[in-house]
Amino acid sequence: MRILSVFGTRPEAIKMAPVIKALAAESGLQPITCVTGQHRQMLDQVLELFGIKPDHDLSVMTPNQTLNGLSGRVIEGLDAILADEKPDYVLTHGDTTTAMAASLAAFHRNIPVGHVEAGLRTYDLSKPWPEEFNRRTIDVLATKLFAPTETSAANLRSERLNGEILVTGNTVIDALMETVERIRTTPELKAQLDARFSFLDPSRKLLLVTGHRRESFGDGFLNICKALANLSRRDNLQIVYPVHLNPNVSDPVHELLGKNPNISLIDPQEYLSFVYLLNRADIVLTDSGGVQEEAPSLGKPVLVMRDVTERPEAVAAGGVRLVGARTTRIVSEVEQLLDDADHYASFARILNPYGDGHASTRIAAALAGRSSAAFAA
Ligand code: UD1
Ligand code: UDP
Fold first, then answer.
1. Which helix (H) or strand (E) holds 255?
2. Which residue intervals define the domain UDP-N-acetylglucosamine 2-epimerase in the entry (predicted)?
């Protein structure tokens, strides 16, 4: 069975890398890989780390691309590959424009679609935008729905969809565990990473920041930058912020914080370095989906700069708190974690609601027609 995996952004690549490896290890499955190149630099960083050499690359990214332009280029580019490769299955991941457009292109050619990370919902089409729409659209047409958690599977069941549902765990935990282990067992690598981040001061707490949500463009990012500028006045805190390459993010962030000596604005980090930073962080401030899933596994308290999340499990378990993109709330929540040791300890517990490191093998087994025990948190 020829399985064409299609992805195009950094998080999709991180989360599909272990799936591609598991497909290759499953007898009877032949993996084919098509990247759309929705991201260029941030995608290539991941492909290189995991040694993925795509069979096809649509190279669709343009500077400050529009959602419609991007969707059109993905559908048209992939259509030619589908005609040529004639895969038995197309696998897409998550909620990006790449995933939505690729799933639709496969549906239009009557090729079954397997959706990895199915069933996450806020039931608010404006948050996250446009991702909530993308994910729901894919779930309507997919024939195999790989739900990471029981909560996401329950969402799918309640929607009476056509696809078969399997609870697998999230493949990001597979990628994270493999990467943590690689750093732990390779002393030269650990030494390289220590040297790369020698500017980190062990006597100060580390606040690691990431952000890119479209619904925060404009005022939201101004509020986030004001909060970071305020927090940067504390002597016991250092702030490290790998800035997303979207110009709607990087322009205001560099303009407002670029000259602040207590905030390190750095380029998007390749995954090994980012995992190293996550491991060193005391507090994580983010609006990222993937980081919300990874940080609790490493026992790091996460403040999520959003009003709602489609990943409620770690919020319920007590490792994640929603703080919105509001200046005073961000400042007060970070300060509480810095100043109240009991409060910090209640957040900083290792939690694994999203996976056990075996999601990808469950997905590959299901595609090969073998059954496996579902993931249970
Ligand atoms: C996209 C996804 C979002 C995902 C995020 C992960 C959609 C609608 N958005 O948002 O769901 O959470 O990726 O990071 O699918 N750029 C570069 N180089 C890169 C990447 C981006 O220069 O490697 C710049 C380009 O100018 C590009 C712009 O960022 O046009 C926006 O990229 P795009 O993929 O459209 O949106 P993201 O905000 O990255
Ligand atoms: N990440 C990374 N380098 C960075 C920032 C994040 O490798 O500089 C990883 C992070 O560990 C997670 C993924 O990228 O696995 C999240 O991507 P992003 O926040 O861009 O997208 P989202 O998960 O919100 O869709």
1. helix 247-257
2. 21-367
CATH 3.40.50.2000 placement within the chain: 2-170+355-367, 192-347
Q: Is the pTM of this model over 0.85?
A: yes
Q: Is 48 a catalytic residue?
A: no
| Tens-place pLDDT, residues 279-306 | 999 999 999 999 999 999 999 999 999 9
| Among the four given CATH numbers 3.30.70.1450, 3.40.50.2000, 3.30.390.50, 3.40.50.150, the one describing domain 2-170+355-367 | 3.40.50.2000
Please write the tens of the pLDDT for every residue from 8-35.
Answer: 999 999 999 999 999 999 999 999 999 9
- Report the percentage of the chain scoring pLDDT > 90: 99
Q: How far is CA 234 from CA 94, 170, 345, in A?
A: 38, 36, 21
Active site residue 95: yes
Ligand 2 binding site (Cβ under 6 Å of any ligand atom): 10-11, 14, 172, 210, 212, 242, 268-269, 271, 274, 288-291, 294
For 376, phi then psi, to 5°, come to -130, 130
Residue 131 is a catalytic residue: yes
Q: Which CATH architecture has domain 192-347?
A: 3-Layer(aba) Sandwich (3.40)
Q: Is 40 in the pocket of ligand 1 (CB under 6 A)?
A: yes
Strand 56-57 versus strand 237-242 pairing type: unpaired
Q: What are phi and psi of 306, to 5 degrees?
A: -150, 160
